[in-house]
Design brief:
Elements: H1 13-21, H2 36-41, H3 43-60, H4 65-68, E1 70-76, E2 87-92, H5 95-112, H6 129-144, E3 149-156, H7 167-176, H8 181-191, E4 194-200, E5 203-204, E6 208-210, H9 220-228, E7 239-244, E8 247-255, H10 260-275, E9 286-290, E10 303-304, E11 307-308, E12 310-311, E13 314-317, E14 320-323, H11 329-351, H12 356-371, H13 375-378, H14 384-401, H15 408-425, H16 432-436, H17 454-457, H18 460-470
Parallel strand pairs: 1-4, 9-12
Antiparallel strand pairs: 1-2, 3-8, 3-9, 4-5, 4-6, 7-8, 10-11, 13-14
Helix pairs in contact: 1-3, 1-5, 7-8, 11-12, 11-14, 12-14, 15-18
Length: 476
C-alpha cells in the first residue's frame, strides 16, 4: 500500500502512467542515466512503483538526492568560444523527477491561482508574449490619445533572477497563501540541497551544493518564480506594473507633468526587490519616454540606487523593437535582416533539389515565424513602405518554395481576429473587461473605442474590432 501523505495530496498509478506516456523520447537522460524512452515505453510496468515512491516522497517531505541532481552541460553560443560567458549552461535533470513535478504542479496551480499577479503574462494559460505587448501598447495608445499626456516606460533588468530566489522567503509567501505546511516543507526541500556538476565532453567536475535559486531545466521552477514575485502587484488608471517571467515593466501615463505616482511606484518596486534579494542591474535597466506634445521639456531621469536610469529612444522588449515614436520601422529593419538570412538557407535547400513540400515545411517554422513574430502588436500600425518590404520578402520566399504564401495583411488580419476572440472568451485576460464593456446591446458587434488620434486608431484593439465587425454574424 502506498502511504497517504500528510499533505492530503497523493497520486494514483493512472495519473503517473499518463505523465510517463507524455514524455519526449528524444530528450537526453538526466544524471540518473534513465532515458525518457525507457520510462515511456515501460510506463505500464513502472507506474505502480513510481506511484509508491512519489507518495513516499510527499509523506516524508523529502526528495531523493539523485532526483535533485543537475548536470550542467556548457553549449557554445558562438563558433569559437574563448571565455566562460561564450557558453550557455544547459541543465540535465531526472525525468522521473519531472514526472512528479508535473503531478505536483497540477495540484499547486488552483491553490495559488487566486494570489497570482493578473499582469504576469508568462507561464499562464491563453496569454503570452503577444498579450504582454498588446496590453502595454493599449495602455500607452489610449493614454496618449488624451491631451497633454506623456507615457514613461521603465524596463527593469535583473541579474540571474531565477538564481536568487530564497527558499525561506518563498516558504513564508506560500504559508501566507494558506498552503499545507507539509507541502511547503516538500517544496523547500526541493529547492535546497541540490547537487550540481559540470560535464564537458568526458570530463566531470566535483559536485557543488546549491541552496538558493530555482533550478534550471525543471518543471516547477517557472511556477515557483512567478509565485515568488506575485506579492508585488500594481494597477491604477494611470500606472501599472506588468511582468513576463523576470522581465518587468512599469508604465506611467503622466498627465500635466504629474509624475509622483510613477516615481513612487518605481521606488516601491526597487525597495521590494531589495527586500526579496532580487538583484537589479541598474546599468541595463532602461527608460523610454513617449511624448508627442509640441512644446515639451527634456524629461528628468529616474534615479535608482544613486544612479540615473538611461533614457533610450528604443528598446527591444520580448523580441519586439519599441521606439519612442511608436513607429515600427526599427522593428521592421530587424525583422527584415533576420528573415533575409533565413531566405538564404531556403535557397540553399532548393539548390539541393529539395521538393516544394519540404521547402514549405522549412519556411513555416524558420522564416514565417520570424516575419510574423508578435505581428498582432505592430501589424495594423506598420507604415505602407515597411509592409511592402516584408511582402516583397514573402513573395521571394514564395518563388523559392514554388507556391503562393500568405502575405502580411492576410496573416495579421487572421491573427488579430483570433486574438480578439481569445480575449473575449477568457475572463482572466487583462483586456477582457475592456473588450466586454464594448459589447453592443443589440447585436454581436463591438463598439469602437473613441480614438481622436490616428496612431490609436491603427493600434490592435480598434483595428481588431473593425475586422471583427466586418465578419458575417455567423463568423463572429
Amino acid at each position: 500500500m502506498s502511504p497517504i501523505p500528510p499533505t492530503g495530496l497523493s497520486f494514483t498509478s493512472g495519473q503517473v502512467r499518463r505523465e510517463l506516456e507524455r514524455l519526449n523520447q528524444r530528450k537526453a537522460a538526466g544524471p540518473d542515466g534513465i532515458s525518457p524512452r525507457v520510462l515511456r515505453n515501460c510506463s505500464r510496468q513502472l507506474c505502480g512503483t513510481l506511484q509508491h515512491l512519489f507518495n513516499q516522497s510527499l509523506h516524508l517531505q523529502r526528495i531523493p538526492v539523485l532526483w535533485k541532481t543537475s548536470c550542467l552541460v556548457p553549449v557554445p553560443k558562438k563558433t569559437h568560444p574563448v571565455a566562460p560567458s561564450d557558453y550557455r549552461p544547459i541543465a540535465l535533470t531526472s525525468h522521473i523527477m519531472k514526472v512528479m513535478e508535473r503531478l505536483v504542479l497540477s495540484h499547486l496551480r488552483p491553490l495559488v491561482s487566486p494570489f497570482q499577479d493578473p499582469l504576469q503574462f508568462a507561464y499562464q494559460p491563453k496569454v503570452g508574449v503577444d498579450d504582454a505587448g498588446i496590453y502595454l501598447l493599449q495602455r500607452a495608445y489610449s493614454s496618449l490619445d488624451r491631451l497633454n499626456t506623456t507615457v514613461r516606460v521603465m524596463f527593469f533588468d535583473f541579474s540571474s533572477a531565477f538564481n536568487t530566489i530564497q527558499p525561506r522567503l518563498l516558504r513564508a509567501k506560500l504559508e501566507k497563501m494558506q498552503m499545507d505546511a507539509p507541502l511547503v516543507s516538500w517544496i523547500e526541500d526541493y529547492l535546497t540541497g541540490r547537487p550540481q556538476f559540470v560535464r564537458l565532453r568526458s570530463c566531470v567536475s566535483d559536485p557543488l551544493m546549491s541552496n538558493t535559486g530555482a533550478p534550471q531545466g525543471t518543471v516547477l521552477s517557472p511556477f515557483l518564480f512567478t509565485t515568488y514575485t506575485a506579492d508585488f502587484q500594481y494597477h491604477s488608471e494611470t500606472c501599472h506594473l506588468q511582468k513576463y517571467s523576470d522581465d518587468t515593466v512599469i508604465v506611467g501615463c503622466v498627465e500635466n507633468g504629474q509624475e509622483d505616482e510613477y516615481r513612487d511606484l518605481v521606488e516601491s518596486f526597487v525597495r521590494w526587490s531589495r527586500e526579496n534579494l532580487l538583484q537589479l542591474n541598474v546599468t541595463k535597466t532602461k527608460e523610454m519616454v513617449v511624448d508627442f506634445r509640441k512644446s515639451k521639456s527634456p524629461p528628468s531621469p529616474v534615479c535608482i540606487s544613486g544612479k540615473d536610469v538611461e533614457i533610450v529612444p528604443s528598446y527591444r522588449f520580448l523580441g519586439v523593437q519599441l521606439d519612442n515614436k511608436l513607429e515600427w520601422s526599427t522593428n521592421t529593419d530587424a525583422v527584415y535582416k533576420k528573415a533575409m538570412s533565413r531566405l538564404y538557407f531556403l535557397r540553399r535547400l532548393r539548390s539541393f533539389s529539395v521538393c516544394s513540400r519540404m521547402l514549405h515545411m522549412f519556411y513555416q517554422p524558420v522564416m514565417a515565424s520570424t516575419i510574423f513574430f508578435a505581428a498582432v502588436c505592430w501589424g495594423a500600425g506598420i507604415k505602407a513602405k515597411d509592409a511592402n518590404r516584408l511582402n516583397k520578402l514573402i513573395k521571394k520566399a514564395g518563388s523559392v518554395v514554388g507556391c503562393r504564401l500568405d502575405n502580411l495583411d492576410e496573416v495579421v488580419r487572421d491573427r488579430m481576429v483570433l486574438k480578439l476572440r481569445t480575449i473575449m472568451d477568457s475572463p482572466s485576460h487583462p483586456l477582457h473587461n475592456t473588450v466586454d464593456k464594448l459589447r453592443s446591446s443589440f447585436s454581436n458587434r463591438l463598439l469602437q473605442p473613441r480614438c481622436s488620434k490616428e496612431r490609436y486608431r491603427k493600434s490592435f484593439l480598434p483595428s481588431a474590432i473593425k475586422l471583427y465587425n466586418s465578419l458575417k454574424p455567423t463568423q463572429q
